[in-house]
Design brief:
about 65% helix; 8-stranded parallel barrel; mainly alpha; single chain; 8 strands
């Protein structure tokens, strides 16, 4: 089926969902609410199609005349519409993916597919062993983090999931009619008639469900939301990914290997204490226990499937001696049911089931000692079936379970701990003072701290006396978290400035028995370089760490050094272009520093979903990384908001991961077997000039007197902080008067809400002006980093809208509005023009689907924005004790989430 026909199917599906929503609004909220929604929708569309001041005045008059209840209903109506549209678009992406996959062949593979990947490796001259080496080494670590705009209740997710099932059933029915030749028109566009009663009922349930929790989301809520997709879609995607890689190798080389999953899963949610007072050690314990229980129950469920399916009888088969020994051990130690006598694989499955349930506390007797024992048992079953010639049964029944065990383990995810360096210093200072080692550790110079800690770590002695109770919260939290930490990922030190910041973790680990002199810790200690200054200083910090005998021994024992680079604070600190260039340079320099000392560096990229925080297309971002810095292992953050977009459907999860692995594997092959061209000096000098100029312009705006007041009045930043939108505070401490004290996610999110997205483009035009046009176009055409950077800025500009942003000026003192907005608007137009000049094309020429989506979505985001302006104005003039304040807060929160749902990458 052509993609145009598929797009027609999408439009009809959206139409059906829209009609069902309209029916629900009329039924549950009344004809007046429906009429208002339709009036606002028509006026907004008319304004987009042909702007007139009269239409604008009509629209604003309707919005300003809304009662509070009506305003909330309008926000809910358009937000719910977006949830339904997002579902329809996900289904459309699945259909398009399937059509493209059908047409993919080794000779003409689909772009960014495994077939294309292996074909390129072969064309580059790699033989089978070398291609296998590249793919066998690959390990992409995906790390789930929380995000304030992904706060949909699980009840909402459930109703949306049920709506999807109904759409699937309708589509299946129309496909069957097409196969029987009954109705070719229906096949091209299922659900062309009025929506069926079941769909109307489910949409009505969605409309009648409260979108908001009664209180601020807890860390526990965020853990459940963040890990939702692991046992939902990712569980299905992992075996398919491995199978896809193996089939691609077989298609091009004629040999099929047995690969392990190239993915590892981690989580910060419940372990990220940096600035979140709610992540106490008890929460960390709960988070890892929840993940473990979730994994165990899923494994029990899958083992139950094996028990059901593997009904092979010893009357028909002869099992291997190895499996016989396992069954005899099970018989001695476990109470196996008599009904499975003579059915060895069912008996074997019951043994697995007993040992898994023992870990859940639901069965007496021994449980698994660890993931490897469980994997070993599954491999025995596979081997036994293969020996019987039942390879296909092993492949479809046991192997998927074993691959998921390898990818997720019995813990489901490795839980990272993250703490800010100042808190670690405070904790260590108390320890050293208590032991009489030093009275004022915090007052020492950085090199003095390093020397003191290095000397102290040469011994195994603990510092605190037996029974000592920490006097500070910092020390109590640090020690209890380390003691409770079982699902060990890495210990990330945010705001790393000096080598001592990492040595402090080692000293704290020694206190709880996790460190022995001359040995590695049982987890990685990861520096996180975030600000522009820290990125520039990172190579020197890494050099001192690797020259330190204590840390060098740890790194050698761990097989390398993991370094995290932050995309958020550097952007907020220096602006879009300078931050991207600083990240590029830091990776080059850190890699060279480590290589000169014989140490392998692995990078952890702290990317957000917005382009200002390293978002955009993850695969292309990987392709743009500096040569020599990718290797075979990499970590990426996956934030809560992005999870729904990328992993809501098994096919979408598969395609997203396939694209990332495609680019990572090519970069890895380049680093392992290729010879990358050195970056041209002319390009390096040009981007250096551009970055410096862009930072000047960006900082001039932020430091201009009155800018902070303008920002606070224009955007809903204070409201984001006050409302129950996430477990983490938006400010680093108290009330602030400076941008630097604001966290990066709300900084970006607040600009997104007003449709300016300044962090994703401001200062770029003036920077690019420093590069002659011919050279700029050459860099765009030939340098992936430069092309990806400009492409990301173009996406931010495309989602911005000056017309909507101007409506927020109602909230700003006229003198401030006049001082700042004209220059921002001028910079916007200038940046758009210089990008299109560089591209020799439109902003989104490289993203036709996004261009179409943006055009279709804007008329439906606009009403939420206009209502939000009205709500902000009312909220700010309403006294805190006024009875309507609660209703205003609720409606405002809904508007924040609604715009995020409409734009899809808000932070």
């Amino acid at each position: 089926m052509s993609e145009e026909r598929l797009f027609e199917r999408l439009k009809r599906e959206v139409d059906v969902l829209g009609r069902a929503l309209g029916k629900a609004i009329r039924t549950l909220s009344g004809e007046r609410a429906y009429a208002l929604e339709e009036q606002i929708r028509e006026l907004t569309k008319a304004l987009r199609q042909s702007y007139t001041e009269e239409t604008r005045r009509q629209l604003l008059a309707v919005v300003q005349g809304l009662s509070l209840l009506e305003a909330e209903l309008m926000v809910r109506a358009f937000s719910t519409y977006f949830h339904l549209v997002n579902l329809a678009e996900e289904r459309h992406r699945v259909r398009v993916n399937r059509e493209r996959e059908k047409k993919s062949t080794p000779q003409a593979p689909r772009g960014e597919s495994f077939l294309a990947l292996v074909g390129q490796l072969k064309n580059q001259g790699l033989n089978y062993e070398q291609a296998l080496d590249v793919l066998s080494r690959l390990r992409l670590h995906l790390t789930f983090t929380a995000h304030p705009t992904e706060t949909r209740r699980r009840t909402q997710r459930y109703h949306i999931g049920e709506i999807e099932k109904l759409l699937d059933a309708a589509e299946q029915g129309s496909s069957e009619e097409e196969a029987q030749g009954k109705n070719k028109e229906v096949a091209a566009s299922p659900l062309i008639s009025d929506s069926p009663p079941q769909l109307d009922a489910r949409v009505a349930l969605l409309w009648g469900t409260s979108e908001l929790r009664k209180s601020r989301p807890s860390v526990e809520d965020e853990v459940k939301g963040g890990l939702f997709y692991t046992t939902y879609t990712l569980w299905q995607a992992i075996p398919r990914l491995v199978d896809g890689l193996e089939r691609a190798l077989e298609a091009h080389y004629g040999q099929r290997p047995d690969l392990s999953p190239p993915l590892v899963f981690r989580s910060w949610i419940g372990g990220d204490r940096d600035g979140n007072p709610n992540v106490v050690p008890e929460v960390t314990s709960w988070a890892q226990n929840y993940a473990r229980e979730t994994a165990l129950r899923k494994f029990v469920e899958d083992v139950d499937g094996l028990i059901r399916d593997l009904s092979l009888s010893e009357d028909r088969i002869t099992i291997s001696r190895e499996l016989r020994l396992v069954l005899e051990e099970h018989a001695r130690r476990l109470a196996l049911p008599e009904r499975f006598q003579g059915e060895p694989y069912r008996q074997f499955g019951m043994g697995l089931r007993y040992k898994l349930r023992a870990l859940l506390g639901e069965q007496t007797g021994p449980g698994y000692s660890g993931t490897q024992e469980f994997i070993g048992d599954l491999r025995k079953a596979e081997t036994s079936l293969n020996q019987l010639g039942l390879e296909e049964i092993a492949r479809v029944s046991v192997r998927p379970l074993r691959l998921n065990a390898e990818a997720f383990g019995l813990e489901l995810v490795g839980l990272d701990l993250r703490e800010e360096s100042r808190a670690l210093t405070e904790a260590v200072a108390e320890l050293l003072k208590t032991a009489g080692v030093h009275e004022h550790y915090g007052g020492l110079e950085p090199q003095q701290r390093e020397a003191l800690l290095t000397q102290e770590l040469a011994t195994a002695r603990p510092l605190a006396p037996v029974g000592y109770r920490p006097q500070t919260k910092a020390l109590q939290t640090a020690l209890e978290a380390l003691r409770n930490w079982r699902a060990r990922g890495a210990h990330v030190v945010s705001m790393t400035h000096y080598p001592s910041d990492l040595l402090e973790v080692m000293l704290l680990a020694r206190e709880v028995g996790l460190y022995r002199p001359g040995r590695a810790l049982p987890f990685d200690v990861v520096p996180l370089f975030e600000t522009l200054g820290d990125l520039q200083n990172a190579p020197l910090v890494v050099a001192r760490l690797l020259d330190n005998p204590v840390f060098k021994a740890h790194v050698q024992g761990r097989g390398g050094l993991e370094v995290m680079i932050g995309y958020s604070d550097s952007n907020k600190d220096a602006g879009f272009l300078a931050a991207n260039w600083a990240l590029y340079q830091a990776q080059e320099a850190i890699t060279a520093t480590a290589k000169s000392r014989g140490v392998q560096v692995y990078y952890f990229h702290g990317r957000g979903t917005s382009t200002a925080r390293g978002g955009g297309t993850a695969g292309r971002a990987i392709a743009s990384l500096p040569p020599g810095t990718v290797g075979s292992r990499m970590r990426l953050t996956e934030q809560g908001e992005a999870l729904a977009d990328r992993y809501a459907h098994p096919d979408l999860a598969y395609r997203n991961l396939e694209q990332m692995l495609y680019h990572m594997a090519l970069a890895s092959a380049r680093d392992l077997y290729g010879q990358a061209e050195p970056l041209r000096l002319e390009w390096r000098e040009a981007i250096k000039r551009a970055a410096e100029r862009s930072t000047e312009v960006y900082r001039e705006l932020l430091l201009r007197p009155g800018f902070f007041e303008f920002y606070e009045q224009l955007t809903p930043i204070r409201e984001i902080g006050a409302l129950n939108i996430a477990s983490r505070p938006v400010y680093r401490s108290g009330r602030v008067r400076e941008i630097k004290d604001l966290r990066a996610i709300p900084w970006v999110m607040s600009w997104t809400q007003v449709r300016l997205l300044i962090p994703g483009w401001y200062g770029l035009a003036e920077g690019l002006e420093e590069i002659p046009l011919t050279l700029r176009r050459e860099m765009f055409a030939q340098w992936p980093f430069f092309a990806t950077t400009l492409d990301s800025a173009a996406m931010a500009l495309a989602k911005a809208d000056l017309g909507i942003a101007r409506e927020y000026l109602r909230l700003v003192e006229p003198s401030l509005a006049e001082r700042f907005f004209p220059s921002i608007a001028g910079a916007f137009e200038k940046t758009r023009a210089i990008l299109e000049e560089t591209f020799q094309n439109t902003l989104l020429f490289n993203h036709p689907v996004l261009a179409r989506q943006t055009e279709l979505r804007n008329p439906y985001v606009d009403p939420i924005s206009l209502v939000q302006v009205e709500l902000l104005e009312r909220y700010r003039r309403t006294p805190p004790e006024a009875p309507e304040r609660t209703g205003l807060e609720r409606a405002l929160m809904l508007s924040l989430l609604g715009i995020a749902a409409g734009l899809r990458n808000a932070g």
